[in-house]
Write a structure and sequence with these properties.
globular; alpha/beta; acyltransferase; 10 strands; EC 2.3.1.9; about 375 residues; ten-stranded mixed β-sheet; about 20% strand
Length: about 375
Amino acid sequence: MPEAYIVEAVRTPVGKRGGGLSAVHPADLGAHVLKSLMERSGADPAAVEDVVLGCVDTVGPQAGDIARTCWLAAGLPEEVPGVTVDRQCGSSQQAVHFAAQGVLSGTQDLVVAGGTQSMSQIPIAFASRRAAEPLGLTEGPYAGSRGWRARYGDRPIDQFHGAELIAEKWGIGREAMEEFALRSHQRAVRALDEGRFERETVPFGDVRADEGPRRDTSLRKMAGLPPLSEGGRLTAAVSSQVSDGASAMLIASERAVREHGLTPRARIHHLSVRGEDPVRMLSAPIPATAYALKKTGLTMDDIDLVEINEAFASVVLAWLKETGADPSKVNVNGGAIALGHPLGATGTRLMTTLLHELERTGGRYGLQTMCEGGGQANVTVIERL
């Protein structure tokens, strides 16, 4: 069987809304990691057969196939094409899947996968009715569809509503979510202080480290925040942060490894994606993980580290309840509640961190999953070499 290897993985620091990366063109964010990726890997950029980047809300500076724009803005060879992927929050994880599938099929040997996103410049504009209202829009993307309305009625399609439904279904209270959020910040601060992110991060100008983690947060401060909806359990403290950033990985075949003298760092062990209730929207990592474990024959005990995107604390806590995973193996360096969630870039940001943490700790298998708009979830299992 052919193999697909991760040769190199890098990311920018994650900038907070209005922070040090907020005025940077998203193509320049992407260009920065692409140039750094190729320099670190030592591979010939002209040998890359495609650049697959995730990005959500591809309007304004993120329009026009930003994957192609990023590569050209980096000064890399014009003959290398690019394509932009939108699987909502899992866009760059899906980019890795597409890149790996090209290699596993034998049709490609060297593919770049990654993502870029400037949420400071392009807010989540079209993902929900809630987001549409401030823009003067009367409907989100679903409400105008007769077929959708016939199937799902007028129920709100909204990530905040979905996260509340999860908290309700799995009996997750506000205090439990705030305790989880505090732990995310504490783990992220520890990772920063111990230099765990230094190998994976390529500074951008004066921004040298992730801007999101809050050293001074506390349960008392979180308890004072108003809920995001009347009578709800969610607050801003238990939600992922609005962020800017980019990340990228180089995926190679055995032939490319041999011909270019590359050193593979991990093997793509499994790729899958599943869907479920689009109204609840964010609980798909639960059935997707079960599906991936069944397909691979692995159990959660075989998994050394997990990265599950912290879109909301309720998402991860429900997943922990259903999978029985050891919390000490999950998001060990903090997650999106502390580090931020630059939508299209988060998938490869998580996988970059997962790879480096497996190397730091000597673990073998790492599993990554993320909730995504439309009630979907990708799962990737990588094996450290």
